[in-house]
Request: fold
Amino acid sequence: MDDSPETRSRYLRLVTLLWPDDPATLPLLTDRAQHDDSEEVRTTATEGLARLRWLATEIA
Reply:
């Protein structure tokens, strides 16, 4: 299995786009934004969190 930062970032983008309402998405992105060893993955997760916040304001 490819565990490179690029692959992990790609998976996080897909999770954010395909399952924004899934209960596991927010905790996953929060964990990766705070604890991943790759700056690229942390940045992708932070961007995903911003997208979820934006979606929440658009829906409300």
The radius of gyration is 11 Å. The mean pLDDT is 94. The helical segments are 5-18, 25-35, 39-59. The CA atoms of residues 13 and 58 lie 19 Å apart.
